[in-house]
Specification:
The complex is a heterodimer of chains A (252) and B (601).
Chain A (H helix, E strand, L loop, with lengths): L2 E10 L2 E11 L4 E5 L6 H8 L7 E6 L9 H9 L1 E4 L11 H6 L8 H9 L3 H13 L15 H14 L4 E5 L7 H18 L2 E6 L2 H7 L2 E6 L2 E6 L6 H8 L8
Parallel strand pairs in A: 3-7, 3-8, 5-6, 6-7
Antiparallel strand pairs in A: 1-2, 1-4, 8-9
Chain B lengths: L11 H22 L36 H34 L11 H23 L2 H12 L3 H26 L3 H8 L4 H34 L8 H10 L3 H29 L15 H10 L5 H18 L17 H15 L2 H6 L5 H42 L18 H23 L2 H12 L3 H26 L3 H8 L4 H35 L7 H10 L4 H31 L1
Helix pairs in contact in B: 1-14, 2-5, 2-7, 2-9, 2-11, 3-5, 4-5, 5-7, 6-7, 7-9, 8-9, 8-16, 14-15, 14-17, 14-19, 14-20, 14-21, 15-17, 16-17, 17-19, 18-19, 19-21, 20-21
The chains are: A alpha/beta (252), B mainly alpha (601).
Chain lengths: 252, 601
């Protein structure tokens, strides 16, 4: 079992972002989290990525419960979960290579990190090069990261996530800022990589068509509650319509 | 009832009030400082005429034949100025980085596990912050006077004295730059299992490098100026010749020296501007790389052909080499003065211990009880300290307000966006070549004006102006204002250039003139940042005003000077120095508060 959430709720101060969510995700599954802006997708992903601890309920990743782990074990667990945040979290003014290598830092000591900053081993460079090849931008390895287009930077973030050699890959709104054709490419890349490597993939999207096309399992979130959890074919039109309905829709 | 918000917000009326308040302060300061003297002392005839005829040979006819020729002597002194600046910076930069690291908090471990660690780091953090504030509250010249008195007249001692306040400033700015970086990349790396220190090294440090590099180069420029001023207290840099030539009325020599110093600093200034431009721009790719070999070959090829700037590498290499030469000139067969003078170790220890006795207050020294220091200090404060402090503050305040007003008036004519035949790059009808050239010239001349006025150190301006105008506060105020006029021009110019141009462009489109556009868009939008820089420069003005007083106007500097020269009373000198430092400390706190208020508003 990759992920297990039981009766999770999470609040930021007085506002409740997630309410009583329970779900299980098996190893190698591909899941899309869908729902309108502010429905709690990012919070759910951050909980899955151990960046947050839930206010109540329990969450287990790879049969470990982060809330019970010491800092060292948590660090170890984190190296197995890769996250691609919406803002990508890349260092803009260094070369692409550096950003890809940053994915492997959890496994290194401080001394090794300093060594790598000064001199990356040929083996490390080669691995980064191969991964960049898989995401389709190997020619950019020595370019400055901020000289790349938005879509290319996203591919750097994917390569960095893969450099972690993760068991779970989480991506937060990976296509929110690129055009439809490129959005399709990116989602295709992610699902394909997940199938080939057997990585559990969880992607948040607000693009329903893309989710239906590429993901065998869709989880709908609305106002921090689970709206549905089903295969795309089993999803009724009514359910989809309700998911994106505005709160004050009673006027119309 | 809600409590009224105590946050400082500057709205339209707030801006007008601020400007009025500044003018009011200027008037008050002018009243405190009194009028200019009527008649300048001595004759300074031919000073301005000599500007057009800088000398290349000695003006002194009575020199022996085998004396070193003027031009070689001056170039050697210029080299020494450069050398000491390099030595001081080579100490200040590493120390500044280390202290800057410890005075920033972003690399601290987070969460409940890091609580103990944070508890341990907190006292270190506070001590470091206090130390760097103390280091930079005392002017390098005063550090130098103290150190030379305590350790003997070595050039190396003077360099250490230069390095101290520079370390403080670098550490402060470095830690601010570190704390300003966006934390997204760092947070991401931590969430993938890296430790906070690892994340700090790999994500925040690279992001800070451009700003740190340009600031270091600016500090180097300051180090050159301070190194030149060291000549006025007897170290053999260009300042020494400037003083001698002026005292002997060899004005042609003097202008040569000033021009050379100016040229050296302007070159560094221009290099800094070029570096900044490069570091904030992505280098262009010259040609596409074809990937057809094995991965190893491709990687090599890509690395070799990766786009990069030449200037950044060139500057890095040359600064390393020059620092090396500055420390060990013997290695490249350059014959220079030794950094340390021959003196036995006992001799030095004696000096230090006698100096330590000298700086303990006289009554304490006699009775052995620190309780006697209080009446002693009260007496000093009432006799001279109080007036000296008021005058110093008035000088600094008057100077910064004058330079702010001047810089504000000159700014639009220096702006690349406005001082152009096609302001904001908006199509403005058919243009004659003449108009285009005239506008280009206007921008260039104004910017040159800014560069030149900031290139010469305040102390040298003040020294010359006192000679020309006679002893009063005004030559000193003028000297401070001149230098800061150039600095504000540059800082404000950057603010204006970084401002999003949409509203200014909109105004130009609707037919407003350049000045209308400046008044309606640039001035209000940049006002808060302008004010922030104003306060920042005011702080440095207070520091400098303390020093300029040494040239003869009743202020803290003069008291320090008198205590040192007339009475050899290092205890009194220390009292005045600490008084000045206390003002800086308070100024620092005020400016932190104001900066917070202004960035929030």
């Amino acid at each position: 079992m990759s992920l297990q959430l039981t009766h999770i709720s999470h609040s930021f101060g007085a506002t409740e972002a997630l309410h009583d969510i329970s779900l299980e995700i098996r190893t190698g599954e591909q899941v899309a989290l869908i729902g309108p802006s502010g429905c709690g997708k990012t919070t759910l992903l951050r909980l899955m990525g151990t960046q947050l601890a839930p206010s109540s309920g329990s969450i287990t990743q790879l049969d470990q419960t982060p809330a019970e782990l010491g800092p060292r074990e948590l660090k170890k667990l984190r190296t197995r979960i890769a996250m691609i945040p919406q803002h990508l979290g890349l260092v803009p003014n260094v070369r692409v290579l550096r950003n890809v290598l940053n994915g492997g830092m959890g496994e290194m000591t401080l001394l090794q990190t300093v060594r790598q900053m000064i001199y990356p081993k040929p083996k490390e460079t080669q691995r980064a090069y191969n991964l960049l090849g898989r995401t389709g931008i190997r020619g950019k390895i020595y370019d400055r990261t901020d000289s790349l287009s938005g879509g290319q930077q996203q591919r750097v973030a994917v390569a960095r996530a893969l450099y972690q050699d993760p068991t779970i890959l989480l991506a937060d709104e990976p296509v929110s800022s690129i055009d439809p054709a490129r959005a399709r490419d990116t989602i295709q890349l992610l699902t394909q990589l997940s199938k080939e490597e057997g990585i559990t993939l969880i992607v948040s999207l607000h693009h329903l068509e893309l989710a239906q096309e590429f993901f065998p399992r869709l989880i709908g979130l609305r106002d921090g509650r689970m709206a549905f959890d089903s295969a795309p074919d089993a999803l009724s039109e009514e359910e989809c319509r309700k998911l994106y309905q505005l709160d004050h829709s009673s006027h119309g | 009832m809600d409590k009224p918000s105590c946050r400082l917000t500057l709205r339209a009326s707030g801006r007008k009030l601020t400007v009025l308040a500044l003018l009011f302060f200027l008037a008050v300061c002018a009243w405190i400082l009194g009028p200019m003297p009527e008649r300048p002392p001595g004759s300074t005839e031919g000073f301005w005429a000599a500007a057009l005829h800088p000398a290349l040979t000695d003006q002194n006819q009575s020199l022996p034949d085998d004396a070193t020729p003027f031009i070689i002597r001056i170039l050697r002194e210029l080299g020494t100025t450069l050398r000491y600046a390099f030595i001081a910076m080579s100490m200040a930069v590493p120390a500044g980085i280390i202290l800057g690291f410890f005075s920033s908090t972003v690399w601290w471990p987070e969460g409940s596990q890091g609580r103990l660690m944070r508890l341990l780091l907190r006292p270190i953090h506070i001590t470091v912050r206090f130390t760097i504030t103390l280091m930079r509250s005392i002017h390098e010249l005063i550090w130098a006077i103290f150190f030379l008195a305590a350790l003997g007249h070595d050039p190396l001692t003077a360099c250490v004295a230069l390095a101290l306040p520079f370390t403080g400033t670098l550490a402060k700015v470095f830690s601010e730059i570190i704390d300003e970086q966006s934390p997204e990349a760092r947070d991401h790396v931590i969430s993938s299992g890296a430790s906070p220190v690892q994340a700090f090294l790999t994500t925040l440090i690279p992001q800070t490098l451009p700003d740190m590099a340009t600031y270091t180069l600016y500090r180097f420029e300051c180090a050159l100026r301070s190194s030149a001023v060291l000549g006025f207290i007897g170290i053999e840099t260009i300042g020494l010749s400037i003083r001698r030539s002026f005292e002997n009325n060899f004005y042609n020599e003097l202008w040569t020296e000033l021009y050379l110093l100016l040229a050296m600093i302007v070159i560094v200034d221009i290099l800094g501007a070029q570096l900044r431009k490069r570091l904030h721009q992505i280098p262009p790719r010259k040609q596409l790389v074809k990937l057809e070999g094995t991965p190893e070959e491709n990687i090599k090829k890509l690395k070799r052909m990766a786009p990069r700037w030449k200037l950044t590498r060139l500057l890095l290499c040359s600064s390393v080499i020059l620092t090396w030469i500055a420390w060990f000139p013997g290695m490249v067969q350059i014959d220079t003065e030794s950094l340390t003078q021959e003196s036995g170790p006992m001799n030095r220890m004696d000096r230090i211990s006698s100096f330590l006795t000298q700086i303990t207050p006289q009554p304490v020294h006699e009775s052995g009880s620190w309780r006697d220091a209080i009446p002693w200090a009260t007496e000093l404060w009432q006799d001279n300290g109080h007036d000296a402090l008021t005058n110093t503050l008035a000088m600094a305040t008057a100077a910064i307000i004058i330079s702010a007003l001047a810089a504000w008036l000159f700014l639009p004519w220096a702006s690349r966006a406005l001082a152009s035949a096609q302001p904001m790059d908006i199509f403005s009808g058919r243009l004659s070549k003449c108009r285009d050239l005239a506008w280009k010239l206007c921008g260039l001349v104004t910017r040159t004006f800014f560069i030149i006025s900031r290139a010469i150190p305040e102390y040298i301006y003040a020294y010359l102006l006192i000679g020309l105008l006679g002893i009063s506060a005004w030559p000193l105020v003028l000297a401070l204002a001149l230098h800061n006029f150039g600095i504000l021009g540059r800082l404000w110019g950057e603010v204006v250039e970084n401002q999003p141009p949409a509203s200014a462009r909109q105004l130009m489109h609707t037919g407003s003139s350049r000045l209308q556009c400046y008044m309606a868009s640039y001035a209000p939008m940049s006002f808060n940042r302008f004010l922030m820089y104003l306060f920042y420069r005011w702080e440095t003005c207070v520091r400098e005003a303390t020093i300029l007083g040494m040239l003869g106007f009743a202020s803290l500097g003069l008291q320090i000077h008198l205590a040192r020269h007339l009475f050899r009373a290092y205890d009194e000198m220390l009292f005045y120095v600490l008084l000045g430092a206390a003002v800086i400390f308070i100024g620092d706190l005020v400016s932190v508060f104001l900066r917070r208020a202004l960035t929030k508003a």
